Amino acid sequence: MKRLADYLQPGARVFVPGLSGEPTLLLRELADGPERAREVRFIGVQFPGIGSANYLGLHPEVRQTAFFMSPSVRQGLHERRAELLSLDYPGIARHLAQCPAFDLAVGHFSLPDADGWCSSGVCSDFLPIAWPRAKRRVAQLNPSMPRTGGGFRVRLSELDAAIEADMPLTAFSEAAGGETELRIGRRVAELVRDGDALQLGIGAVPLALARSLTSHRGLRLHAGMVSQAARALDDAGALDPDAPITTGVALGDASLYDWAGRQSKIRFADVRRTHDPDAIAAIPRFVAINSAVEVDLFGQVNAERSNGAIQAGSGGLPAFAQGALRSPGGRLMICMAATAKGGTLSRIVPALGDQGLCTLPRHMADVFITEHGVAQVRELGLDARAEALIAIAAPEHRAALEEAWRAIRNRL
Are residues 20 and 123 in the same domain? Predict the structure, then answer.
């Protein structure tokens, strides 16, 4: 019996989807026969901590092109078997559209409908870009993959191979968070207006925010990803019932995928639509809500690197930030706990140093939220901006930040 792994060849460039579109059948086949991965270069967008794919761990001669750091990619970089491209989501889309053609693309689709169309279901972020640029195309057809509207689809007759395998989709469980996240969520909710269009990520703060927004009405969603937070808003009646939800991916557990598959208002699209700054800017009152590793007193945002180690990538943050700042009435909100390492380390720092990366420059700074308050800095001068950020730092770190700012100020 033919397997998806049988289409892998030494030297091939192979595109593989990630998140809820992760090719679970291919991964199982390669776990049973890792020799099929020898001398293959896998290219895809895998997030650290989400999914089970570890292509570099399959065989010592595997190569990988990655866009987010992970433990396996870090090891691959040391071994010279991985390359990490410093691109945001629009940059990744351009790369996939312009790089050398793929020898093979692997898809994860629903069963075909009566007309022979297979849906990419709850994951349409990057596959639609890579798929037409592949010399051969193979697919897992999964009864557990919902057939969704507005997303990418292919005809069964166009596939070089299609194997039906009913397997659970890649799941992700979000941490519930604690009092800090609840306080941040409540502060953000006070800034959100009825009728705003929101972009939320995943994690404890979006979940806490959703709980604080249940009394809001007429909210709209445009995001790279929808998770349990989106479902909580829908269940509470906080969303505009007539507004479509535009997203690239649904990510959560089986119940979330079932919910997403039943929502005709969810329009799945690839990143050329979900992360297009011009399209985002055309949405009135677009509010982008994201997190960061640290923020300095100039308003520079580091969302990628901690203590010198790259933790992820810039992802969709730059695109959403650009769009939000250009949207009529739009806002860019960066949310984070004020400290790390049990309160010993302030996440508001004097200036980004050689252990960080600047994901967003200071001219894009707008609103910052911690459990200690809100700093709205868009129109503030240097001193007023620094003072506003110090005021939302943890109280035990404010004196040191004030002293550091005085030293910085004297050198300006």
Answer: yes
Rounded CA-CA distance 369/376 in Å is 9
Amino acid at 299: G
DSSP string computed for 182-200: HHHHHHHHHHPPTT-EEEE
Q: What would the two tokens of residue 23 be?
A: 């090719």
The token duo for 293 is 């590793």
**Alpha-carbon distance 131 to 270, whole Å?**
12
Helix (H, G, I), strand (E, B) or coil at 305: strand
Domain that holds residue 9: 4-164
| Total domain count, the chain | 2
Residues 138 and 224 both lie in one domain: no
Pairwise CA distance, residues 73 & 253, whole Å: 26
Half-sphere exposure of 157 (CA within 13 A, CB side): 3
3-state helix, strand, coil in the chain (%, to 5): 35, 25, 45
Same domain assignment for residues 225 and 374: yes
CB atoms near residue 357 (< 10 Å): 20
Question: Is residue 192 a part of any domain in this protein?
Answer: yes
Strands 367-370 and 331-335, by their bridges, are: parallel
Q: Cα dist. 219→78, 272, 332, 339 in Å? A: 46, 23, 16, 31
Q: Are residues 183 and 273 in the same domain?
A: yes
Domain boundary (164, 197, 225) is at: 164
Is residue 58 within 8 Å of residue 37, measured between CB atoms? yes
| Dist CA 274 CA 277 (whole Å) | 9
Tokens 């250009």 correspond to 326
What is the pLDDT, as a whole number, of residue 49?
86
> How far is residue 117's CA from residue 111's CA, in Å, rounded to a whole number?
8
pLDDT digits (tens, 9 = 90+) for 334-387: 999 999 999 999 999 999 999 999 999 999 999 999 999 999 999 999 999 999
Please report, for the domain that includes residue 70, its CATH number.
3.40.1080.10
pTM comes to 0.95
Q: Mean pLDDT of all residues in the chain?
A: 96
Q: How many CA atoms lie within 13 A of 402 on its CB side?
A: 10
